[in-house]
Amino acid sequence: MTAPRTPAAESATLGTGAGWTLLAALGFAAVSTLTSLAVGERVSLFTVLTWRYTLGAVVMVTWVGTRRYPKMAWKDAMRFIVLGGGGQALLVGLALSSLQYITAATLGFLFYTYPAWVTLVQAIRGAEALTARRAIALAGSFGGIVIIVFQLANGGTLALSQVAGSGKAHGIALALGAAAVYGLYIPLMQWMQKSHPIAATSAYAKIGSALCFLMLAVSERSFTVSMSGRAWGAILALTLFSTVLPSVFFLKGLMRLGPVRTAIVSSVEPFLTAVLGAVVLAQPMTTSVMLGGAMIIAAVVLLQYRRERVA
Predict the structure, then answer these.
(1) Per residue in 213-237, is it b (16+ CB within 10 Å) or e — as a string?
(2) pLDDT > 70: what percent of the chain?
(3) 112 — phi, psi (to 5°)?
(4) How far apart are the first and last CA of the chain?
């Protein structure tokens, strides 16, 4: 029989989980910018993603191979390759395909409607209750995202018909579709993770994603190894700093915080994306972006400020 954790131990677990999740958010925040830099070198999106996940899989498999992890049953391994890797490929493909129609910053903020999907899935499953504090935190997070999306997507001036005519509606649909998939993906990964080593499950998921993107790149006849040094540099940065390390950090946070808390803490990611856009791509930081980012951070603080009491 496992002894109940003390309040101090529970708080330490939540704090550690929040730390891992924030580190993951920083890495993931650079994905759109680095992908845009690579695609800007006349490399197809699916080729960039194939190399990103292939190199990521090599790194993770090498790491797992040098450690004495318990052997995973083939059935479980295939589950991570097909569901974990395939699900990741689907949501990443949808999200980054939207960059053809909307900016990286707009994608970042639209994608972060996904906490609503996480909350809905968890409520339907009866896994986590929608407490008043979580509802307030989600409302604050969404309020900030709405302000930023309103500014970046339309500038507050375009009519809906103009948005559709400009192709932005297609980009918005892709981004929101990715958010919906992610809302299902987070609890799915937590359910499959169980007691398996995080590094091993991440390696299998990377293999699955790499295979999916390789098939897509080959089918459109865009796969190549002939790329500029700038493109390779962006892909290597994507592999290490925005794929391998953040994936491990995210799972570490997920197993300590749970899906809903992880989703809310991760909502600082679009603000970090905006900061990276300003530093790397010289994109302006408007008042709306700052206000929306402050609301998102306030939601994270609210979530971590007071620990839920478990009877």
Answers:
(1) bbebbeeeeebeeebeeebeebbeb
(2) 83
(3) -85, 25
(4) 17
